[in-house]
Write a structure and sequence with these properties.
The protein is of the alpha/beta class. A 5-stranded parallel beta sheet has the order 2-3-4-1-5, sandwiched between helices. A two-stranded antiparallel sheet has the order 6-7. Helix 9 runs parallel beside helix 11. The chain is globular. The chain starts with 7 loop residues before the first helix and ends with a helix.
Length: 379
């Protein structure tokens, strides 16, 4: 898509993976997940067809199934007048209760069968199909916590895995599960609280969408200079990108703030001051609070306290820390910490993209910008 800058390399890599298997797309909030999905949906690899389905806000698995059917029909991937879903309804209803192109009656009773029939139709359509589910983990978490639909969620995950397995070898059907909370959080909750025994994503590849590469960040800066009518001079654009680790949301925020200040030719000093203001801000403009809220919401009380303790130590240290360093620092404040609890928490914080582990097994904050904010507000 011409209006989405960059991420071509990431899209190319994702399509290469999708030749073999489905993908879990993980990243922090505001990194550019949805833009990447939109680009992949609009510019599919030759021979493929795509459907982008944004699922946040669905209040039941029936709504999820109905919405997916609507998307598939509107894209022409499923033909409403001749498909397995219609055949099922004709058989079950005996022709006494016809439905239109989009209406799926009695879904509460039959959603599992209907979803399976739908995916069979998709897999046997003219082209292989990629279904991109944006905010899928968030939808599942809401269904579990707010609507107490944990059984249906487990069944949904199992069905999607079954059909991926069935058609994976034929390269007829692929999925991308994507969301601002990791699907691992949902699965951990289902295992711990509802005794879920499934492993619904172990045949999927986890792809972490990170900051922009330097070329894409430079292109974004150049575009934003034009949008906000700011001069490009003296390496300022490169400095903006470096100051926020090539994170597109924060690049845009810096340009926006500079423009609102009335500057036309920002200096490096003005850029540094603007980044500092974003880190210091407590009104939420920088969306940093999300990083704290994720731990508050999704971690157990014990994991939450240990997570805060570890992140505080990482924020105060300006060096990579190995496990022994981390344990020593943590036990200085909480002597009773066990090795297993520490290792589990490090794994969670790394998997949830707060931390990064280097080739020597040492840990640091994944982004210096987040470290700077955490140190300023929570240390």
């Amino acid at each position: 898509m011409k209006n989405i800058i960059g991420r071509d390399e990431e899209c190319r890599r994702l399509w290469k993976i999708l030749d073999r298997q489905s993908v879990v797309l993980a990243s922090l909030r505001r990194i550019g997940k949805t833009c990447t999905l939109k680009k992949m949906a609009a510019e599919p690899q030759e021979g493929w067809q795509t459907v982008l389905y944004i699922v946040q806000g669905k209040k039941s698995v029936e709504e999820f199934v109905q919405g997916l059917y609507n998307e598939l029909v509107s894209k022409g991937i499923v033909k409403p007048q001749a498909n397995r879903v219609r055949e099922f309804y004709n058989t079950w209803l005996g022709g006494t209760k016809p439905f239109g192109n989009y209406e799926l009656p009695e879904l509460r009773q039959h959603w599992k069968v209907v979803l399976g029939k739908m995916l069979e139709d998709v897999a046997e359509s003219q082209k292989p199909t990629l279904i991109l589910l944006d905010e899928f983990p968030w939808m599942l978490y809401e269904l579990i916590i707010t609507y107490k639909s944990e059984d249906e969620c487990m069944e949904l995950l199992n069905i999607l895995r079954t059909y991926r397995e069935q058609y994976e070898g034929q390269s007829r059907l692929r999925f991308i599960f994507c969301g601002s909370i990791g699907i691992n959080i949902v699965l951990d909750h289902l295992v711990k609280e509802h005794k879920y025994l499934g492993n619904p994503i172990n045949n999927m590849y986890t792809f972490v969408l990170e900051e922009m590469n330097e070329t894409d960040a430079a292109a974004l800066c150049s575009h934003l200079s034009w949008v906000y009518e700011l001069e490009e001079a003296g390496g300022v654009n490169d400095h903006i990108a470096r100051s926020v680790q090539n994170l597109p949301f924060y690049i845009d925020l810096v340009f926006k703030e500079l423009s609102q200040k009335g500057t036309t030719a920002p200096t490096i000093a003005e850029v540094d001051a603007t980044v500092l203001e974003l880190v210091q801000d407590v009104s939420g403009n920088g969306n940093f609070d999300h990083f704290r809220e994720r731990i508050d919401t999704y971690y157990s009380p014990a994991d939450r306290l240990l997570g805060y303790l570890l992140l505080k130590n990482f924020a105060l240290e300006n060096r990579p820390l190995n496990r022994q360093d981390i344990l020593q620092l943590a036990r200085h404040e909480t002597p009773a910490i066990e090795d297993d609890a520490l290792n589990d928490c490090l794994k969670d914080l790394t998997r949830d993209l707060y931390l990064r582990m280097d080739a020597e097994g040492r840990f640091t904050f994944r982004y210096a910008l987040l470290q700077r904010w955490w140190k300023m507000h929570y240390c």
